[in-house]
Amino acid sequence: MLLCKMSNSQLCNMRDELLQQLDAYKKMSLSLNMTRGKPCKEQLDLTTELFKNVDIYTDSTDEYGVDCRNYGELYGIRGLRKLLAPLVCATEERVIAGGSSSLNMMFDVMMKLVVFGADDKNPPWGTGKQVKFLCPSPGYDRHFAITELLGFDLIKVDMTDNGPDMDQVEDLVRDDPSVKGMWFMPVYSNPTGSICSDDNLRRIAWMKTAAPDFRIFCDNAYPVHFLEKYDKMNVNILDECKKAGNEDRVFVFSSTSKISYPGSGVALMASSENNIRSYAKMLSKQTIGPNKMIQLLHLRAFKSFDDILVHMEHQAEILRPKFKAVIEILEKELGSLGIAEWTNPRGGYFISFDTMEGCAKKTVELAKSVGVEFTNAGATFPYGKDEKDRNIRIAPTLPPVKDLKMAIEVLCTCVKLASIEKILEGQRVSNAV
Ligand SMILES: Cc1ncc(COP(=O)(O)O)c(C=O)c1O
Questions:
Q1: 281-329 residue pLDDT tens
Q2: Are 30 and 158 found together in one domain?
Q3: Of 316, 337, 261, 394, nearest to 18 (Cα)?
Q4: How many structural domains are present in the chain?
Q5: CB distance 363 to 377 below 8 Å
Q6: Helix, strand, coil proportions of the chain in percent (round to 5)?
Q7: Which of 103, 158, 269, 336 could make an S-S bridge to 165, C-beta 3.0–4.6 Å?
Q8: Residue 191: CB within 6 Å of ligand 1?
Q9: Do 118 and 176 lie in a common domain?
Q10: What ligand 1 atom has the least distance to the C-alpha of 101?
Q11: If you measure from the C-alpha of residue 267 to the centroid of ligand 1, how many angstroms do you get, rounded to a whole number?
Q12: Top mutation candidate among 36, 146, 219, 394 for ligand 1, by most atoms within 8 Å of CB
């Protein structure tokens, strides 16, 4: 029965039962952390199995004669760039394989735009509110944190099931030259899991922007992180931008963080020839080259892109039951109550959960009070402010299924309680009127 159709006494009875349930959870001294999307031990073990048989020390020279133990190869080793180029929608000439973190690369590209500008024709962006940056939301908190740190004016754009709301995006960029860029996740976005439609990818490439130095940070963090089957993108964003005469518009980033080891893998970026050339020129002042031994390890462990897909299928086997468990509990506990909605993603690392308006913070607080920690409500919005106070990010990958089930049961109890209190409060207000 829909909660909003229940009588006052039904709601009060239900609230009392839920409070008892919460008390029972408290007595269990739970300590469950659901805050970050990290791979679990079993996923990491798969990579260890693969890596432990790879020898990079007897012969550390790659197929092009580069001794990977030594300095050099600013762009990263060529074989690896070739292998991983599909992750960033490019061919290897336009790919830079760097250190272990794509987030670090994004930060670095952003800083170069702030300090040096997009190219010779445009001034540096500088820091502060004069730079407006579009933030499709709910989105990735660490993206928003970078642009917040730089003092940019963060503009919220709605996420849809097919990517950013492109009507809003086009309206915002058309006439205002201070709108300089946008965060964007094309596949299995964090946290909604949405896949950008072909039509929206084309609109991103072709839209008219008032700023000639408008740049899109396309974070392809989860390109091969399917749960059922590989969702290959039909529209290549870099090629489409070129066709549209907006070749320099997009930087595409990715990494092996959730393919092999987070923090000990390889990050990648690709863009137009111009952008890559000018980025590399600046990069050459920062470093003499990346960690090529790690790159060689990845190249020798994953000989082909198909090998990567097979490895990711094994990871999916580990993750499928976790996502399934979450969805099943949500459907069973909340499916008929009309108080929450959630995504059922085809891949990625998250499930996005929306409460009734004004209930997300309370839900997270209640869960925390019994030892279950979720990412702060609001974290998926710029400045950590979810105006409707609805969104909670669920990260099912790290905990064992048993803990995960317990955490989601707790979430369901808490969201029911928060919703009932909200409805009862509404009833009190309308009775008073
Ligand atoms: C969307 C997204 N981008 C980037 C990252 C971090 O990537 P990296 O480890 O390559 O810095 C994450 C990690 O959760 C993520 O969810």
A1: 999 999 999 999 999 999 999 999 999 999 999 999 999 999 999 999 9
A2: no
A3: 337
A4: 2
A5: yes
A6: 45, 15, 40
A7: 158
A8: no
A9: yes
A10: 11
A11: 10
A12: 219
